[in-house]
Each structure stands twice: as C-alpha cells, then as structure tokens.
Design goal:
Strand order of the largest sheet: 1-2
CATH topology: Rossmann fold
Helix content: 25-40%
Order of helices and strands: HHEHEHEE
CATH superfamily: P-loop containing nucleotide triphosphate hydrolases
Shape: globular
Number of domains: 1
Structural class: alpha+beta
Strand content: 5-15%
C-alpha cells in the first residue's frame, strides 16, 4: 500500500496515516494486517483502489474498477468515486457495465477503439 509514497520521501507516520485512511475508505480496515495472498480477488481490487487514493490524487484512471466486486462493494466504490468527484477529483472510468456507466456525469462510447458520434449505435 505504501508503494506510491516511495519517491515522495514523506515521514513514515504520515504515510502510515494516509494508508490507514485509504484502507478504511474502501472498507478493508478489518483486513489491513493481512498479506496479499490472504485476500480475495475483490479485496485485492479494493486494495488497488485504496493504493490509488492514498496519495490523494487529482486524477484517477480506473479500468473496470468494480469488475471483481460483489454488488454491495461495487455500489460502495461507486459512491466513493462520486464523493471524490464532488471534491474535485477527476475520474476516468472504463467499463462494460451499463450500471456503472449510468453513474457517470459524462459517457463516451467506443467502438473498435474510436469514439462513437452521439447518434451512432453500437452493433
């Protein structure tokens, strides 16, 4: 979890605090002392999200961020993303899930790697 801080040369206590906050934000406080091999696929997905959040970025690029999550955790992560966006964080989310896309403020549909015009339909 502290990997993003490697080049920042921040005080260890500050790093520890930011990492702990990020873990709590994704609902993994009860698993913070577990090794990666002890986590489920969905928990590892949430650790990856927490790792991105820990450095308090202004931009998050997320490729299928809810792909390995159950519906409850998916909704929690999407709510967290909306909260972050309301605080000024820009999120670019790639998804095949129409329910995830419906929560976005803006949606761009791609076909074969190119954006579709507003009137075009996917096959």
């Amino acid at each position: 979890m502290a990997l993003p801080f490697l080049y920042r040369q921040q005080a260890p206590e500050l790093v520890k605090n930011q990492v702990a906050q990020a873990i709590l934000r994704v609902g993994l406080g009860h698993r913070q002392d577990h090794r990666p091999a002890q986590l489920s696929g969905g928990e590892m997905q949430r650790v990856a999200i927490a790792r991105a959040l820990a450095i308090k970025p202004w931009l998050i690029l997320a490729d299928e961020p809810t792909g390995n999550l159950d519906s409850r955790n998916s909704q929690a992560i999407l709510a967290l993303f909306q909260e972050l966006n309301s605080q000024g964080v820009t999120l670019v989310v790639v998804t095949h899930d129409p329910q995830v896309a419906a929560r976005a403020g803006r949606t761009i549909h791609l076909l074969d790697g190119r954006p579709l015009d507003a009137g075009e339909q996917t096959p």
